[in-house]
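Ticket #4471: structure export looks truncated?
Reporter: QA, pipeline team
Priority: medium

Steps to reproduce: submit the single chain below to the structure queue and open the exported record.
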Amino acid sequence: MSFWDEIRKIPPVTRFLCGSSLAVSVPVMMQVVAPYQVVFIKDLVTRRFEVWRVFTSFFLGSSGINYIFDLVMLYRNSDQLESSHYARRSADYAWQLLLASLAILALNIPLRAVVHTRPLLLALTYLSARLAPPGASTSLFGLLSLPLEYLPYALVAMDLVLAGPAAAAQALSGVLVGHLWWWGAWQGAAPRTLGIAPAWLRRVIGDGPGAAGGAVGGVHVVPPPRVREEAERATGHRWGSGHRLGES
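Actual output as written to the record:
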């Protein structure tokens, strides 16, 4: 099986997100493109119509090993959402992601943020965590075990310690948008039609893959003890140390 066959196995929206991240970040890291050319600067967008900055500001990653971690987290969270919770609904996932991105942009203009990659990642992480099984836990960098629902807040706290209040505020905007996404789309707070992709987007993206057993999850998840015990009694299968979110 060829490399491109493996790439085509990735759900379409997740493939677009990861491909866009590589397309924007790698030329900047290789010093082929100046970072100034791809960050969001409101005056240049509104007065000089450099509208590409709106798009590229969501995909400019950090440099070095941090970028690898962020790209893996982006892939795993998005793949888990698209393959499981949005199975055969890739167009709806893309539409809701677009709405979430617009909300992130609106919240970050007063913060004078020029890069929106981290808020987008936090929004996806928050949604993945809220849709995870109740009582699930995760290991943060293999060092600290904590309930999965607290993972987004732990990432915000890390941004506060490592990059300061401004970075934490931007990350927190992603958590807020992630909560509104979960509350509106998954708790019925928003009109159902708002989360349904328009026909033109559905024609472009299609339905996407069906639910994937054993899909790669956004974080390493340990099932709650009660769930493990019930599953062992029902199936005769004994859980190991954990399984990835989205696996059956």
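Status: closed, not a bug. The export was complete when the record was re-opened. Leaving a note from the reviewer for reference: The radius of gyration is 19 Å.
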